[in-house]
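anyone else get weird line breaks when pasting these?? whatever heres mine. first is seq + tokens for prot A
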Amino acid sequence: MLPLIAALLLSSSVDPLAGIDGLHIAYYDVRGNSWPAIGRSIATQGMGRAGGLEIAARTSWRVRWQADSLVSGKSCRVVGAKLDYAITVMLPRLRDQDRLDPALRRRWQTYLGELKAHEAGHARYASLHIDDVKRAVLASDCAHVRQNGQHAIDAINRWETRYDMLTRHGAMQSKAPPVR
């Protein structure tokens, strides 16, 4: 299933981040007039390394919920839940692209498209599975509502960890050599 999602995201000519509910895109600036210089600029941004590669982009998300309960005597049951979530994708933005050699600019645009496709895998999965948290909360009794909501969040996190492991943090999805 993961390779299929990755292939679909990479094959699309549409921005892979388009249409993801709750998504906010943030940028950090990088500079360079050569591929190695761009890589050094990414490395200085402090996003870190994983699997031996500089992390150039990152997806984070948060979810909060509030369970509504009905207490009657010694009985308590969850009767509703409100959910609030946000997804943020952090991407590099290459400054002064208009001054680059056209071949380097195309290489950058390809690389950025591949970063977006990989991060869209994270963001889309989280967006599609946020309601799992609500379902877990609604299916809970009052004593286990926090635990069951957290289990649903943990399941999303496990998928994301596996996705990064299988794609080597997107490197296996890329046609462009990594910036170093």
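and prot B, same format (seq, then tokens)
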Amino acid sequence: MGLTCFKSWKYDSRGQKGNRDVLASPGSYFFLSNSCGQGDEWLQSLNKRAWIPFTGVFGQRLEETVLYERRYGARSVPLVVEQCVHFIRERGLHEVGLFRCPGQSTLVKDLQEAFDAGERPSFDSGTDVHTVASC
């Protein structure tokens, strides 16, 4: 899967036509608008109404996850990152071997599947810090 190159034309303030190359990946959409404002309106409208297929957090591009989760509130990072970092800051900063000792693989897999399913697993005092750090 490579990038496809399109030619686009833009008129400058003197009415002179110039061209530039635009790269688009397969499966992308390319919209042209008459102004930046019109393009921004289109994007806002699409973000509010378009269904974005989502197949989980793990194994996806970070940008896709962030865009998907923005539909449910303003976030700068995916929920899994936010929730795991919060837990590690509260309970794991003094843990010996943090990020060096792996968590239990079955528990890590269970956590990843829960986040992929759109759940928000709760971490309690019995949750292993290494397992959360391994997500």
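btw re prot B: Residues 52-135 form a domain with the Phosphatidylinositol 3-kinase; Chain A fold (CATH 1.10.555.10). Residues 33 and 42 are 9 Å apart (CA to CA).
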